[in-house]
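Exercise 7. Predict the structure of Uroporphyrinogen decarboxylase from Halarcobacter anaerophilus.
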Amino acid sequence: MSKIFVDACLRKPTPYTPVWMMRQAGRYLPEYMEVRKKAGDFLSLCHNPELACEVTIQPLDIVGVDAAILFSDILVIPNEMGMKLEFVKGEGPVFEKPVKTEADVDALLGGEEAADRLTYVYETIKLLKQKLPEDRALIGFTGAPWTLATYMIEGQGTKTYNVCKKMMYSNPELLHKILRKVTDVVKFYMVKQIEAGADVVQIFDSWASAIEPSKYDEFSWKYMVEIAEYIKEKYPETPIIMFPKGVASFIERGLVYGNFDVFGVDWGTPMALAKEKLGDKYVLQGNMEPCRLYSKEKTTQCVEALQNIMQGEGHIFNLGHGILPDVPVENAIHFVKECHRVSAK
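Solution. The predicted structure, encoded as tokens:
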């Protein structure tokens, strides 16, 4: 049975434009909060295949999206490379010992050895393949090397990125060494997700906009392109989505290239610009401003505007970043229904 979402990624005809939402398995769903409570904490939920499988499927049943995205976290990668990770209430993810020196990088596990430790992720995917309806796709994912490196170097989330950007300008060789090591783990991790059953994979560069345009290719995009190329060599039929957030200026400068299928457009990038510059080469995903979900009327306006721009061709509906925790569930359902309504052929 064909999967509408996979067909859309490959620009094949579909009866309507499919839709899913980043962070669709999350805190806005009361059902998710119940499972998380049962798990004990966020990281324990990521490590429990049965419960991770349950929360991955919830948005399909409750909200009606066309694809499930694996419930996990991007930071399980550095965690399994040997960095001790904690989620601190009010602070978010924190690494006990950030990477500061070449010796710190050398001490981390790399390549397939680190990727092999993520067994709970692969077990979750295998479980999902048994439980998901045949017509719904499963999206695997990873953080981009730059986004992962920012957490590893800063030790936690940051608004200024001054520690890793200091390294970028004063010791670029060390930053490249970190990015190289992370990239090599991510390559194996993505392939193992596909081998476990992921239909599509997405590479998130959440902190793309922290890099000035003239440095973006060197410190982020080229590593993402390398990962995509590695996946395509092994699994040419598996669609790849690239999502670098905050990159309107990079698109205008022609900095987007590579062997992948779908480009995720963030909400700060005009969809018409993305279509003009990239629409012939890549299917475009996005890009409703997530806060529009607080208003059904503003949601409908945006969905109709996106449909007018994209005309149901080479497009996947999504938000321009993740759904926020206090969005009413009925508004998320409204978004999905409106996407299906306006694009029905």
